[in-house]
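Entry type: protein chain
Record version: 2
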Amino acid sequence: MESMLYEAALKGSVYTLLELQHKDRFILDKVGKNFLSEGPLHVAALLGHVDFVREVLRQKPELAGELDSQRSSALHKASHKGYVDVVQALFQVNPEMCFARDADGRNPLHLAAMTGRIDVLEELVRATPLAASATTIWGDNILHLCVQHNQFQALKFLLENMDDQELLNAKNDFGMTTFHLAVADKQIEAIKFLTTRTTLKVNALNANGITALDILTQSKRDPKDSEIRELLRRAGAIRAKDIQLSVNELGITKNKSLTSHGYYNQKQKDKGIETVHNKEDNWLEEKRNTLMVVASLIATMAFQACVNPPSNSHSDQYGTFLLYNTIGFLASLSIILLLISGLPLKRRLFVWIFMVIMWIAITAVALTYIVSIGFLADPSSHAEWYSTLHLW
């Protein structure tokens, strides 16, 4: 009798159903509890036999909540096939099944979007808009599924009829928005429509830190690329490397509302300011490195001169040599110490201090050199050398 009931569901024969129930009035209870794949209600919903579905629901409304081996309800089946009258019959009995998720995390609205069943979407979105915001096991929302299954009309209908500002820019588990997917699949019609949405974040980053324009650039060449690139350019799309990242939040753009309108001009201003700051920072870093190198060289020279004084040095002149050499050594060490301490070179006071100390160090090195030349010169000319030194 159970096989006969399935046969009746396949044909949508209400007469056979009633006849079988006359013989065994518990037949629907037995099948409802024992079926392993699909019950008769699932079969009838899959094939669009609305009269059979209504009769089963009239007698056993609880069967509308039964799931098959793939965790699909009869509403899943009817939505996937686009049988609006069957969907209405099932929804009226158990509207909560709009939120039921199958083994892949898809609810009946997801299945209707994937197959472009606009009539079903219109029926269910109006009744249960929250179900349209649900996601699958991979984090895909209903708009993601429209693009993945190339259902532009369904995508357009949903965006025009749903009041959900966040759904358009929502990301799946791979950080992909609907716009990312449309560009990756090079769906020109969808791209044209999406770029007209004022809330679209054209330069959102996916999990790999790239934008829609990056995806297009890295994709396999296609004749449609030039048209898509022009659409992205008009919408203000840029590469990820051109987006100034926030100092405080890595991976999040400085302007969190990178919409298709007004972004480009602001980005140009930010880019100009960023360039000036970068040049200034680079100059300061180069200046810091130069000071460190020069100070290290002076310190090394002064140390070597101290431990290896001129061979012809005399006790009375050696004191002068040692004084100048020590001043240069201590001045250079002071510069190294100040640089290591991290004093900001952007402050005018600190720049002035560094310049004065460096001037002292270089002067001391010059004087040490003059005294050393005096030691190495002919002894008979010592008086002339020191006379010149004292005059200088």
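Comment: Residues 246-277 have pLDDT under 50 and may be disordered.
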